[in-house]
Amino acid sequence: MIKRNIFLILLIILITNIIIISNGCTFTKEPLLVYVKDSKAAWYQDALTLFQIKYTKVKIAIVYHEKWENDDGSWSDLRINSSDEALKAYRRGIKSSYFIGKEGLVVQDNTIVTPENGCYTGVFPGWGEYEDSVKGEELINFEKLSGKSVAFVPFSVFFGRNYVSRKNLGEISKYGAIPLVRFMPWGEPYWEPEYQPRYSLQRIINGDFDSFISRWADTIKDYGKPVMVTFGVEMNGDWFPWSGVFQGGGKKRTYGDPDKPDGPERFVDAFRHIVNLFREKNVKNAIWYFQPNDESYPQEEWNKIENYYPGDEYVDWIGFSLYGAQTHDEPWVKFEEKMEPIYKELTTLFPNKPLFLAEWGVMEREED
Fold this sequence. Notes:
It is a single chain. The chain is an alpha/beta fold. It has two domains: 31 residues, no CATH class; 326 residues, TIM Barrel (Alpha-Beta Barrel). 31% of the residues lie in helices and 19% in strands. The protein is built from nine helices and 15 strands. Strand 12, helix 8 and strand 13 form a beta-alpha-beta unit. The chain starts with a helix and ends in a 7-residue tail after the last strand.
């Protein structure tokens, strides 16, 4: 009878799944629900559960919340409220006390204090065509929609637009979150996967953009609060002009070290050049992060993530992008199947750097 009672108690705990004990700390979590298999709701539930029990080294998770029309007229809806079920799953998952909004954000001497047992929240609402139309009311609306505040908010700075918006920094600060500023070296036409000689990595290395990068440094320095900053996100993909595939690829002996692939080496030198400009300006509040994509395209030896890494002295945080299906012709891959290999890779490559998910999301399955 005693054994039977113990078994029933354990079974109840397993089914209700209300309290999780991890690393000696306790946090509350909503009970799991049964959603349609391979649905967006199930994907969200898996992600927000696995952050808490398996992928605990992820200390910030920034969900992508946007909808756009594709060239073929179809829509990609990555908003958390693309369906009632998706919204319900996101709200139930993020409600856990493991996820920490702006109220729990801890900063000491321009350093983000990573939670020992938790993960900061964030949202990237897209911010329009140029990813820079930040509006504080949208953050408030997202908080109401999701049921929890956010602690981190990205926006982009396109080289072709040539300014870091003080207004954007102010909007995020007024809300109470930390901004992430993404330097993106491209100009018109945006969103075309092709080489742009005007904004090449080589020109950045040569110092052709030093004058306005220095102005950006001044703007961030004057802001006076912590700002996370990166350059050239998802450089190991093949969809941005600064991607290694467009900057020399796997060729050697045409630039720098003859034993290193030229595309990644140029990226490293451009990243370092920008960081050094900020250091010359004595910008103490910039927190630098590195953001590869979870998978490399092309999947070749020269295009591995480690070839793009600027070095520990140039990077404070390791970020990464991870998306499920974003269009209806993409295969459906479960969150854990996407997350497992990149999590192992990054925690092995960079064991001493804090890790965060700089972008994550998925669209609805067409048949859902």
